[in-house]
Design a protein that fits this description.
Oligomer: single chain
Strand content: 15-25%
Shape: globular
Helix content: 40-55%
Distance between the termini: 55 Å
Structural class: alpha/beta
Largest sheet: 7 strands, mixed
Order of helices and strands: HHHEEHEHEHEEEHEHEEEH
Number of helices: 9
Number of strands: 11
Radius of gyration: 23 Å
């Protein structure tokens, strides 16, 4: 009889395209992946994986079995969801991811509430970019992801996912205390056309949004510094090295040497939770979404 965990390993290799990617998705070592694949080849009596340069590829037999593995794993997940729904209890393991400011701004309160209300639920969390979170849910590596899109730049959403709105996260512009506009009550982005910007890393969803938005207003931004964490961006503003746009969720303490000025045109990120529709009946997912909504409401207040 085929071993389910070894089929999961083959499925992960097919989805991720590499042993290291499969190991990361399964949260195991690369050697553990290789061992499981070797045992699976012995079980079926056929070669499933072949070397391909410095990586590997699936053989024809590997592709065939991986297709069956995906169907088998999907059916097992359906069965688990139905049993959990039938029992009506929030138990088991829930894997949840979020972009960094949502992890900082929502997870502590939401997870505390879930722990207190449902001691039988085990939470596993990680930070990742919105598009990566969506892909992880589609692949089955995560049960729930907290993602975002901007008011003028939606995040592509594949079929088969359900979503629940959590909050609209307003953004402000942040300036050094000595900036010429530091005492203004509000600003437009166009007024900062000549300033140097502090931005998210290259390829990050929020970085793409900022450049897209500034260009749509006739501003070609001069990006002087890039930092993933908002606290680092604020520290760079505090040093007088530029200006930045900073959402309010998970912002944390603002340094004394910066000024936060609201934008004249309301700019907001839409923050929501996504999960697979085939897991919609799981009480743990419903409980997690409810806890995230409560945390979001408290963050907005």
């Amino acid at each position: 009889m085929l071993n389910l965990e070894r089929l999961r390993t083959l499925d992960a290799l097919a989805r991720h395209g590499s042993v290291s990617g499969a190991a990361a998705g399964l949260h195991v070592t690369t050697s553990a992946v290789s061992q499981q694949l070797t045992k699976l080849e012995r079980e079926v009596g056929q070669q499933l994986v072949a070397k391909n340069g410095r990586g590997v590829r699936l053989t024809d037999a590997g592709v065939l079995l991986a297709e069956h593995a995906a169907q088998i794993i999907s059916q097992v997940e359906y069965a688990q969801s139905d049993l959990e729904a039938h029992r009506g209890q929030v138990v088991g393991e829930l894997r949840i991811g979020a972009f960094p400011t949502a992890a900082r701004g929502l997870f502590p309160a939401a997870f505390r509430a879930l722990r207190d209300a449902h001691p039988g639920l085990v939470l596993r969390s990680q930070e990742l970019e919105p598009a990566d979170g969506v892909r992880a849910v589609v692949r089955g590596d995560l049960d729930v992801a907290v993602v975002l899109d901007w008011y003028n730049k939606p995040l592509p959403m594949p079929d088969g996912l359900a979503k629940a709105a959590l909050l609209d996260d307003r953004a402000d512009v942040v300036l050094p205390a000595g900036h010429r506009f530091a005492d203004r009550d509000e600003l437009s982005l166009e007024e900062l056309a000549e300033d140097e910007w502090i931005c998210w890393p290259e390829g990050a969803f929020c970085q793409d949004w900022l450049i897209f938005t500034l260009r749509s207003k006739g501003v070609e931004p001069l990006i002087g510094h890039r930092a993933e964490e908002h606290s680092t961006q604020l520290a760079l503003v505090d040093a007088g090295l530029g200006v930045c746009v900073t959402p309010r969720l998970g912002r944390g303490q603002v340094p004394d040497g910066v000024r936060v000025v609201p934008l004249r045109q309301k700019i907001a990120r839409h923050v929501y939770a996504v999960w697979r529709t085939d897991a919609d009946r799981r009480p743990s997912i419903r409980a997690a979404v409810d806890a995230l909504r409560a945390a979001a409401e408290a963050a907005e207040g």
